[in-house]
Design goal:
- This protein has 4 helices and 7 strands.
- By secondary structure, the chain is mainly α.
- The protein has 2 domains: 89 residues, no CATH class; 119 residues.
- Strands 1-4-7 form a 3-stranded antiparallel sheet, with no helix packed on it.
- Strand 2 and strand 3 form a beta hairpin.
- It starts with 26 loop residues before the first strand and ends with a helix.
Length: 213
């Protein structure tokens, strides 16, 4: 599922959107650092070119853990915003966000034929791939839980929580992989192929957007 995140407004350029997933703010401003020859270079991580004084740019500082921000990351204003998967330091959340981004991008590119031919096979493949990514995230959580237990030589509250997360992710993967679709009835004159196709794609979106963690 596409995630929204804060977009701060400088010079009246942008309004602020609601942050629904705890991702860091993306600030939009104008570069007023000293001339790069004075040691004030800001580099764009997208094109790897300098952001010179007077240029519009955006930056963010994803948290490395609770209450602590990581290094400042900058891009020229005209480049794409960071995706949610790029704005978290958690490998597990990055895996989940990337899966959701891939699902959204793939669904957006689907064209439904007049007879609905091939759509269900395509959606089942999308769901299967999504489930595999979710299981990868579950494995990371389980490995983290086992590492803590090995270090302390006994279970802890954190290891139990991570193990619980892994179980919930595995259950979510099963749900995503088990999503069912309705066959298109070409004899139903009241059902348009595009509308039917959208309903089936919405089913994939609903299942893949409902992360338990």
């Amino acid at each position: 599922m596409a995630r929204t995140y804060h977009v701060a407004s400088y010079r009246g350029k942008r309004k602020c959107q609601v942050d629904t997933c705890g991702l860091p703010r993306i600030e939009h401003t104008i570069n007023n650092v000293p001339h790069p020859y004075d040691g004030g270079t800001i580099q764009c991580e997208f094109c790897h070119k300098a952001i010179l004084p007077g240029m519009a740019y955006k930056w963010c500082a994803p948290r490395v853990h609770s209450g602590v921000s990581g290094r400042k990351r900058s891009r020229h204003e005209e480049h794409p915003n960071w995706k949610p998967s790029e704005l978290t330091s958690s490998e597990v959340l990055s895996t989940i966000y990337a899966m959701q981004e891939d699902v959204d991008a793939t669904l957006a590119g689907i064209v439904v034929d007049d007879d609905g031919e091939g759509l269900i096979d395509e959606l089942e493949a999308i769901a299967t791939n999504a489930a595999e990514e979710i299981r990868s995230a579950a494995t990371l959580r389980q490995e983290a839980s086992e590492a803590i237990e090995e270090g302390f030589q006994h279970p802890t509250e954190m290891s139990d929580q991570l193990a619980s997360d892994a179980e919930e992710l595995e259950a979510w993967a099963d749900e995503v992989e088990g999503v069912t679709f309705e066959e298109y009835d070409t004899d139903d004159e009241g059902l348009d192929a595009d509308d039917w196709g959208q309903q089936q794609m919405d089913a994939v979106r609903d299942f893949t957007s409902s992360s338990p963690i």
